[in-house]
Design brief:
With 332 residues, this protein is α/β, with parallel strands linked by helices. 41% of the residues lie in helices and 20% in strands. β8 and β9 form a beta hairpin. The relative contact order is 0.08. This is HK97 family phage prohead protease.
Length: 332
């Protein structure tokens, strides 16, 4: 049997051996990340360090970590072997609790905040939510009777609150700075602070306005982008039409079309002025002599005809049918 990829440190839906639940998101891991020690059965001594942990993952109310055993030591190798063979399956976390953070939610006592001190490999416990409680400085594991006494004290305190009183809102106060009061739209605050319920209502109101403004802003940005693209398309189309006409009039050669179109996109006025300054070429009954690379030329051969733009070719065929017939007969 392979070692498990992850061990579950905490499941916030499981009541631990002391009678309360631990909020997974409220587990502070700053100290633990600096020293993610793995102990043997919560025995805090050098010889009982059997490895460490990595890649903490909080998801779906669970806290999970990857184990790494120190198999260079006899104890580490022995424990790793028992885990590998399926004889040891239990994992327990040692925490430094924040007793003031315990709340009563329905029939549950929930510790909202604590600090992770270590994670231990333990025999399968009778209660899979068993934990070890450390002193405030993290130096020693508290005795079971001391922890139960603390839990009983907290439980009695919470149970003394009337059931029809919402301790999560009406019992809590918060002191706000002047800037925060102004930002939330409060004129002043009582000496003992603002009710969290009122503050939360203001925050939710502002959040709703922010969401609405963000959506409106995105709509305006999209409309502006659409208008910009339409304007760019219109400018390009107008420039292309002017350049095509200039080519038809023999003012510019067809191979310069892209350059003149780009000029029109950059500055429609400059394109207009430039094209107006170039005289059209007039010749034959066509009234137009297309401009080749060396100035005006007469259309006498099919090769010269094919160098014309499509628009000029059509005009030439329509306006000069006899000359076009001669050109066609010359290639037979």
């Amino acid at each position: 049997m392979a070692k498990p990829e992850y061990f579950v440190f905490n499941d916030e839906n499981v009541r631990n051996s002391y009678g309360f639940h631990i909020n997974t998101l409220g587990i502070n891991m700053d100290r633990f990340k600096d020293n993610p020690v793995m102990l043997n059965n919560h025995i805090n001594s050098n010889e009982n360090v059997i490895g460490n942990w990595s890649e903490p993952l909080k998801e779906a109310g669970l806290l999970k970590l990857k184990p790494h055993f120190d198999e260079e030591t006899n104890l580490g190798k022995d424990v790793a072997g028992k885990v590998d063979r399926g004889y040891l399956k239990g994992c327990s976390m040692g925490i430094i609790p924040n007793w003031d953070s315990i709340q009563k939610v329905g029939d549950r006592l929930i510790m909202m905040e604590c600090e992770l001190a270590e994670g231990s490999i333990i025999p399968v416990p009778s209660n899979k939510g068993a934990i070890a409680i450390y002193s405030a400085d993290g130096s020693e594991v508290l005795k079971e009777e001391d922890v139960k006494s603390l839990c009983l004290s907290v439980s009695e305190k919470l149970n003394s609150i009337p059931e029809n009183l919402n301790i999560n809102t009406t019992m809590k106060k918060i002191i706000l700075s002047v800037a925060t009061l102004m930002a939330l739209g409060f004129k002043d605050q009582p000496a003992d602070g603002m009710d969290t319920q009122d503050v939360e209502a203001k925050v939710l109101e502002l959040s709703g306005k922010l969401t609405s403004l963000t959506s409106e802003n995105e709509g305006l940005k999209l409309a502006a982008q659409t208008a910009k693209e339409a304007q760019e398309t219109s400018v390009k189309l107008a420039a292309t039409q002017k350049v095509d006409l200039a080519i038809t009039q023999g003012k510019i050669p067809a191979d310069k079309k892209d350059a003149f179109v780009q000029l029109g996109i950059t500055s429609p006025e400059v394109l207009e002025t430039t094209l107006n300054a170039i005289p059209a070429k007039t010749v034959h009954g066509l009234g137009i002599t297309p401009q080749g690379g060396n100035g005006g030329v007469e259309v006498k051969t099919m090769e010269e005809f094919q160098k014309l733009s499509v628009a000029v070719q059509l005009s030439f065929k329509n306006d000069n049918p006899e000359e076009y017939k001669k050109i066609v007969e010359s290639i037979k």
